[in-house]
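User: structure tokens for this one?
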Amino acid sequence: MLQMAIAAEIRSPGMVSIPWALRDLPPYRPVARKLMMLTAKADVPLDEVQRVLRTDAAFTADVLRLANSPLIGMRAEIRSVLQAVMMLGLERIKALSNTLALRTFLTSGVPDDALHACWRHNLASAIVCDRLARILHQDSDICYTAGLLHDIGRLALLRAHPDRYAQILEMDPSDDDALLLREKAVFEVDHCAAGEWILAQWDFPVELREVVSMHHRRPRPGASVLLPIVYAGWRIADLLGFSTWRRPVAGEIEEILSVLPGKAPQQALAEYDGLAEDVAFKINAIECSLL
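Assistant:
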């Protein structure tokens, strides 16, 4: 009963109290939050976007480095914020900004192998979600961001309590229910609810908070297309070896892809060979750009 009450409190939109396991987390990068809220409006002037990015020179420099990295694959060099917005679009700039903001969790805490593995898992999931979105003709930047943020709760728990979470990583990675129950037993909140709570505090859109909250549940028929893309994305990332767990994660690619609608499973399966190499290349491009 106590765990149910806690879970209900965590999921309450108006909740004010902070779960004890999530105290003292670094704030979301202010410029990334301003950019996200600004671009949620219709017909945002480009000079206004440029003005927001210029409030943080170091952040802007990192955005431009990512924009010119192999992750994006532009043929011509992008030299300014305005050029980046015009050539890449607002959603892609937001996706890059969220990548940089999430990296704060990695660089502001004590270096830890599991934390770095979780960061790489999030990046791999984002890259796979981007690929699946293109197959399904969905907005690839929104799907990239959803994949990037799906495990923000786990990243937060790992950053705040590395020793406690290290014990959880000794479990069998194939038992999702046992994982979430173990997290609740240790932290009084599982990483799905923790991530939902964090994104609510940062005023992220409801559709992203829903993905974070439900990414361990197999999507039901008729669910928002973002849910099966992220569910398949993070599981494929695990299967390719980009996992937070310390042991290989088992799974069948056909079973994972079966959550996607229409003919997407067959097309995704045809592109599966070489995916691990592509994901590794893009992760390394991101990390090398931010050294």
